[in-house]
Amino acid sequence: MLTPEYLHALHNLPLAARRAAEGVLHGAHASRRKGAGMEFSQYRPYQPGDDLRRLDWRLAARSDRYYLRESEVDTSLVVHLVLDATASMNHQDDNGLSKLQYGKLLCAALAYVATQQGDAVALTVLQPRGLQHLPPRTDSRQLPRLYHTLENLEAAGRFPDAATLAPLTARRQPALTICVSDLYEENGEIEQLLTRLRAATGEVLLLHLMARNELEFSYRGAVTFEDLETGQQLQLDAGQQRRAWQQQQQQWLRETAHRARTHGFDYQQLSTAEPLTQALREFLRRRARG
């Protein structure tokens, strides 16, 4: 099992994504998609990054234009990755890995798996200063674009306001939306966004990131906690508060999972100390059901 800290230590997101995906892809189904199958379906104009082996050179010689032959092998799936990059995602686990660093690895691996399945992959990064968005593409340059965006990403600020988020749900397009977030919110804004995304795209898989030091409350002695988004501080004795903290947190997690499923989301809680395998397999299971 490849640990997330090992993958992060590679300092090579494409390699980390490929290594993380190797195990779960073994024996996985390919999707139905337009591709290079045996039964001819249609031509489409060549776009930079397309596989040159699929060019119809005879047609190019006659028309001086480049077209690809497509076959109806299967219908493709649009996979829309939505990554929370607000300041709370800077929370660091005992292994030295932040939620954002884990989220980057997870999104990169999910994109790699989806691409290997023939799916079109999109990425949206949620930040208060504006959305970073890569539209869904299946060409060979999409993964490098996505990796570059993730590699240069830093977490900052609070969750974006409704006006900033509006373009995400303005257009209805069937897709599997995968949201990676710690669900740190003030007034249900993440839940509201995902509800609108489900109405616009049809399917939402929510991957809820939690650090192990949060889940186990592994702190000792007098501790000062600081809210990464508001700067507010709280001082407490970890030993005295551990049991109450864990009880309240478990109650919150149960309520969070229940609300997510009530809204029709697929919900999966993840620890940033665990390998990416669980989330990748959940994606493939969800994809197979669709």
From TrEMBL:
Pfam families reported for this sequence: DUF58
Residues in DUF58 domain copies: 42-249
Superkingdom of this protein's organism: Bacteria
Signal sequence annotation: none
UniProt-listed InterPro entries: DUF58, vWFA_dom_sf
Residues passing through the membrane, by range: none
Protein name: DUF58 domain-containing protein
Species in which this protein is naturally found: Hymenobacter rigui
